Predict the 3D structure of the following.
Amino acid sequence: MRKTVSGLLPILIPAVSLAVLLAAVFYMQPRAMSYTGLNLLFNLAVPIALATIAQMIIMAVNDLDLSIGTFVSFAACVTAVYMPNQPLVAILILAGAVGIYALLGIVITLRDLPSIVVTLGMSFVWGGLAVLILPAPGGQAPVWLRALMVSKPPLVPMAIVASVVIAVLAHLLIMRSTFGVLLRGVGGNSRSVARAGWSVLALKGAAYATAGIFAVLSGMALVGLTTSADANIALRYTLLSIAGVILGGGEFVGGKVSPIGAVIGALTLTLAGSFLSFLRISPDWQIGAQGGILIIVLALRLVINRRSPQEKTS
Amino acid sequence: MNRLSLLSRKPWTWSFVAALATWIVTILFTGGASTASLTQATLTFAAFSVIVGLGQMLVITLGPGNVDLSVPATITLSGTVALKLMDGQDGMILAGLAVSIAIGLAIGIVNYAMIKFLRIPPIIATLSMSFLVQSTAIWYNRGLRVKPPEELASFTTSSTFGVPNTALVALLLSLAVWWLLDRAIFGRWISAIGQNAFSARMAGIAVDGCRLATYVLCAVLASVCGYLLASFSGGAALNMGAEYLLMSIAVVVIGGSAVAGGNSNVPGIWGASLFMFLVVSMLNTYGFGAGVRLIMTGLIIICVIVAASRPAGSAR
């Protein structure tokens, strides 16, 4: 019994904060409580949720990706420029980019490099490539992608359906599959995973490649929503994705991550933005209030986790 | 020979080798015509990265997960408030400096309070803080561009004995931090905390006091940098700190300090700061477009890191 409670606790807190925030939005703007309203509120959450899952996979192996934002921008640029007319070229470029991600994971493991610095360097590279591909904002979304992102399934808006699908798929991949268990094992104790006969090198490469795939999907989803791209379109995703993972109960070390929590974290962050615009806060304080919400939600964790105080070394 | 091999074992050697190589390549391209001006510009701009980098280095020394993302916002707020307060009057220069240091103190204390009492991981705590600080700067600034006091502006843009004044200030601060890190007990303490916080506590080190002091020091250095930077560039801008987020982390790591904490060095900050500015000016000299310049910068950073690394599993 106790085990189930403590297993649910990490997801419970983000879920409760999301519900409270949503209730506040509904209270202020009852018209948001509709199909269209919900869709508008959560529309931009889909690409953020995908980027957050990508970051979470990197964090599961104890690394941190500071290039997610520029990489998603890069993927969005490739999608907007090549996908409509030369889909094959676009797919080749994106597959190559995922290959580079796998290579990064391998190099970082082989040479014992700090992931923060390598991805910091890569953020320049992706940014540069994005500028080369799309020097000025523009491009267009492929018809099928646009149709998918604005489609209207019955009863539940697309944004919610997509978020649930992402959460369930990521949950199955990371929490239920052998691959996911091994990944979190690498984060928890890579030496014992190696002793058990697995190649940490291959696992890290696979982790980075999987994260790359999710980040590519994030870029594509973003283009589907915005119908165009520019080289800076998703720069803030780097920090948003890290915040989303932490909000969702994930930790920086030890392979402790929660895919469902991460998606909820991404939804919460998206909603915080809408919430602030409903509050009619002066634009000067928009970013600041977002910081405030982040602090409050994380402080809630402390209140609820107080029962099991433990020494934090980080 | 013996001395040379000793030097090659220092973690910061690589950053200076890379900086020197970039400097030579740039000079070669221009045929030696711009040697003096390039060196001047490099020292001036590297000085700002050094000042911010020193603070970031101390924080990173504290161990895994410790990093201060509020640095750019602190730079912006300190520059904005100090310049508005001084309002171009020479008599207010010291008051402006005092206010910007006070801003640094306050931000550092709040940062650590969130880390300690709300148990928020440092990355997220300082990130949230940076949002709040940035908003304050936007609210306070209101698009105003106040000119710095004449004397302060001419101080930051001129040189003494051929060395830019900003570089001299950075040198003084570096010596202070070097003394703190390598000669004073404080340095031993924060290195010990970075290597193993639990053992450090058991050994009787005031872990919380040390960490608080480190975060405060980092914020103060960032605000001093903001004060100088705003005076140097003739006014504060809301995005003036932006590039120092990545820069401050990059110079620490390229300089050979351990990202996992517990082992840092001051000279490397200088090597890496000079190197980072030289890379940009080299690529500018060669006339590359923005895209290629970004790609080359990234690849060069990665190459330096790979070159300075050792295969996994070897003794550190």
Remarks:
- Chain A touches chain B through 52 residues (CB under 8 Å).
- Confidence is low (pLDDT under 50) at residues 309-314 of chain A.
- Residues 2-28 of chain A form the longest helix (27 residues).
- The radius of gyration of chain A is 19 Å.
